[in-house]
Amino acid sequence: MTATPATQAAPVRAAWVVILAGICAALHIGKLPPALPVLQAELGITLLQAGFLLSVVQVAGMAGGIAMGLASDAIGLRRSMAVGLVVLGLASVAGAWAEGAALLLALRVVEGFGFLLVALPAPGLVRRLVPPQRLDAMLGMWGAYMPSATTLALLIGPLVVSDAGWRVWWVGLGLLSLGMAAWLRRAVPPPPAAVRAAPRLAVSLRLRRTLGASGPWLVALCFAMYAGQWLAVVGFLPSIYVQAGISPAITGVLTATVALVNMAGNVAAGRLLQRGVAAQRLLRAGYVAMGLAAVVAFAQVAGHEAPAALRYLAVLAFSMVGGIIPGTLMALAVRLAPDEHTISTTVGWMQQFSALGQFCVPPAVAWLAGRAQGWQWTWLVTLACSLVGLWLAARVGQLLARRGPAGRSH
After folding, report:
1. Which domain, by its residues, includes 345?
2. Among 22, 69, 97, 108, which residue is least crowded by beta carbons within 10 Å?
3. How high does pLDDT run on average in the chain?
4. What total of structural domains would you count in the chain?
């Protein structure tokens, strides 16, 4: 019997709850930048420690993104998301009592594991919930969960931190995550009995197929080159603007806008791919835009920077056109996975390298800024990432050409 709109409504509503849960989890990734200036002042955190606070949340993904994806499958998608939200909530509340960088760093690692438990199973859960004709639209909405959360954190965070303090910001997000876990358990139905009883492909076989193919490695490395430089620039923007004498409220709006336009790049990537634009061309455009925009935004000529308005427009271009890259790579992860049984494993591998990039690049930028006593050499790091990304994009194009229009060799 064909499902009616009425019978489809409840699963679609449940899928929206899954997307909201992802946004809630991602708020913990984005909650730190608005609080960095206050943390440095109150807890005596150095610029290098601030760089590690930004990136250490990625340790979980860096160390075991692919393993966490397999673990999520093992314990169940819905249960994994609920557990991850609880972990995030408890770690955030505990972090409000930190008196130095050490405890904050440790709890950011815990939050990283909680985030993966939420983010990795979400696309599969959305796919299970919604009818096929709604799947592309809902997965497109899921693809914007990270920039959506970053935008919210950068808009709301400065107001909360300036009015009530960073500890209230930490506790508030912790309680929000605990409430979201309860809502998810109520709103999202457990999997059907047939799904629970279905045999799963052996873990070792999925790992061998994934890591033995070049496609997953290419999309993973491409994501690392994008994610590391994006977090390094956007993560430090609040600190840069505060040091320039801009008020926290205006800083929040400026930085949130940079995160918001990243969503446009993600959406544009999907539409351009549907219209037949080659994936490697989109990747090249994204990396070129990020490399050039960072030079305009940060470089100095004869000791002088570009005008402030031009530098801000460059940062907007950096984020918006760069947003084409993750949107393209999400599609490529499906096309370049070795087979249908290794798509989720490929996505986990991509997440692992994304975390690696986000762990390594922000501290490198912070170290360089500390040595130079300013941000004028940030473009060296971002340009290096973009040049490696361009080389990888060429390799992606060669692989797609060998595999033909379908994108896979089988």
Report:
1. 201-410
2. 97
3. 83
4. 2
